[in-house]
Amino acid sequence: DGEVHINELKNGNAEMFWNPTSEVRRQRLKRHIVLFEEQTDFESERLWQHVTSAINKGDQHKATQEKFVLEEEQRNAARERRESGTEWKPLLFQHDASTNEWRYKYEDLRPWDPLNDIAQFEKNGILQTMERHISTRMSNHKTTCINNQITRHKRSAKDCRRRKTSDQPSNHSQNTESSCSTPESVQELSDDDGKYLGFESLCAQCGKDMNHLKEIHSAVLSLQRAQQDIHR
């Protein structure tokens, strides 16, 4: 997001190669870095710290020396592993024999879900996605609806038994008893979407949201298949 110039050493001419507009500068991504003291020895900022320091000071000779020292250490380490028969196992990458390429172990190729995905972040070198967990929230809402229905029907059953034992005419008691068909042990019944509860179905909002989630799930699966085909 800064100016870049091209300097022609032969004739000393200089020209502007890149001068970003204020619009470009505003669009710069916010930079998130791991604190230096929390980085491991092989993380770039710590590993190349002496090279970086020399470059920032404008000391090209020192930067070259530090780079040579660093690379020589890596060559010696690789040589020692070969001689001892030690296999190098990368922490975050694995070799794909079919394409002869190194691939990130934790890559997530699924499409971004704006209804459930909030942000992506890196922790210990692993990219992760923060989610809203809509399905969990919907499940909790569904459970609340079912529990409310169980409570209402328990209350209704209790009222039925109270009316049956009251001092009412015989024929009226029989009518009241026949109108109370809710079993007493409601807790033992299945709560699978209210389908086998013997209650009314879930609230309209539950049904609408569940159907919406099914449509989203179907669309996501279709996008995943397409993305996998493109990736192959």
From TrEMBL:
Positions of region (Disordered): 144-191
SUPFAM superfamilies xref list: Oxysterol-binding protein-like
Lineage top rank: taxon: Eukaryota
Annotated Basic residues bias: 151-164
Family matches, as Pfam families: Oxysterol_BP
Transmembrane feature ranges: none
Biased composition (Polar residues): 167-188
GO molecular function: lipid binding
Record InterPro entries: OSBP_sf, Oxysterol-bd
Name this protein carries in UniProt: OSBL5 protein
Organism the protein comes from: Balaeniceps rex
High-level lineage: Eukaryota, Metazoa, Chordata, Craniata, Vertebrata
